[in-house]
Write a structure and sequence with these properties.
Layout: H1 5-30, E1 38-41, E2 45-49, H2 57-68, E3 80-84, H3 88-95, E4 103-106, E5 114-117, E6 120-121, E7 126-127, H4 141-158, H5 160-164, H6 168-180, H7 186-194, H8 210-222, H9 227-232, H10 237-246
Parallel strand pairs: 2-3, 3-5
Antiparallel strand pairs: 1-2, 4-5, 6-7
Helix pairs in contact: 2-4, 4-6, 6-8, 7-8, 8-10
Amino acid sequence: MAVSPRVRSALGRTVALSALTLGVYVALLFAPGPLFRYAYAGTVVTLHSDRPLPPEASGVTGRVEAKLQRSPLFEPSRMHDVYVCNSEWRWWLLSSGDRRSAAIALLAGHGGSAVITREARLATNRLLQASGLEGLGERTLDYYLAHEITHEMTAEFLGPKVYRALPAWVREGYADYVGRGTSFDYEDARAALTGDAAGRRSPAQTGFYLRDALLVAHLLDREGWSVPDLLRAAPVKAATEDRVRAGLVAPRR
């Protein structure tokens, strides 16, 4: 059936408008700056917000940067942008309607990444969860930011294809290991894994990804693995967990 010039023209305009809308949306995903009026720039981490940032922004970025600097993947010349979505609609727009996460890394590769979060309470160093409640224990705002930025650093170090193929326990465990920083207590985390009643089970050792962070800490701190080796040739998870449970160490050769 023949299509009239008027219909073809209307279809063309619709397609063009759709392509433009999609292009603007994709651009906002990885450069959402126009939606955020306020910013605080630390040394390598810049916080962007849709609300004025309190003086505590300096302390939050400082703690994040201190954690990141402990990673050999850290690049002092690489700036990391974090966008705090205090308005719900901004979170829904940039997260594509994520209903579960409190913060996510948008990984575009080649330095085009960004981290977005839900509403943040910088004065108390806390982030709201999808439930609307503040995170507890070690799940501070700086923990979340260091965790997500570590995903950025890992993806840039490995490249998108290798990063996507990483075992989930290595990907999340290493990000959590960095996010927890010096507060991570190996023995306490091991007691939680083994169910040892004598374990302190301190509030700092009860959050998400504890088992994976423990396995990563065991490999890096007890068995002498390097971060690049862990990311490029991770061992079998079950065997690593068996050694942790048994209190055994197999030194890296």
